[in-house]
Amino acid sequence: MFTDSHCHLADAAFAGCLPQILHQARQAGIHRFIVPAAEAADWPAVYALSEASPDILGALGIHPWFAEQAESGCIEKLSRQLQRQPEMWIGEIGLDYHRSRSEEDRAKQRDLLSQQLAIARQLNRPVILHNLRSSNDLLALLKQHGIRRGIVHAFSGSLEEAEAFIQQGLLIGIGSLLLNPTAKKARRAAAELPLSSLVLETDSPFMLANSTNTPANLRDIAAIAAELRGISLSELAQQTEKNIDSLLTVNR
Questions:
Q1: In-domain check, residue 160
Q2: Which single residue of 80, 102, 190, 211 has CA 20 to 30 Å from 177?
Q3: How many separate domains does the chain show?
Q4: In terms of residue numbers, what domain contains 32?
Q5: Would you say residue 241 has pLDDT above 80?
Q6: Any idea what the CATH number is for the domain that residue 40 is in?
Q7: Whole-prediction pTM value?
Q8: Quick one: average pLDDT of 94-123?
Q9: Which residues of 203-214 are buried (b: 16+ CB within 10 A; e: fewer)?
């Protein structure tokens, strides 16, 4: 049994077919789903999904792609929502220096992230982190706010970067990049990083070039990760589930 630690089930791509998508995933042995938001407009749908099913865990936040469009008062609204919903995580938040090239845009991302990390620290919630070409600044902000619980999702960096996040207490999300045989960094991370620091994800419905990604694909991702490590699927499942469970005690 596996957890898809990052799947956007509230995305419009799944509108009208989500029951079938979830059924297929459960048939493939995926028993739990962590669903992040990307912007404030997603929060009601993510919350509704988490309320409707005990195996769906939601996260509320503002993705760095939406930093410039973030409305005044959104941080206060996020804090109020999370205080009313103690089971919710914070995500998807982070930095993306690949998409935003100007220092002005990057500064806006850092400011928005800093405010959301402050809420995570105050409410003691795990975070789901987006990181593209921004590891140094992301680590600096995590250290500044004392954040030591969460997931760096869709990891595609070096082992040295991963180890720095692990030292900070974060888990590393390994996902659909493994389906690409040429994704050497992701495959090396899956093979060589400590199993105690890994979780699995699809990032569905994204990451596949010619089709809609779904949580059922986590089974194939897990099979590749297990083969790369030379371990059984059951051993991989046992440890990655333990890793997810370590984040679930919200108010410790």
A1: yes
A2: 102
A3: 1
A4: 2-245
A5: yes
A6: 3.20.20.140
A7: 0.96
A8: 94
A9: bbbbbbeeeebb
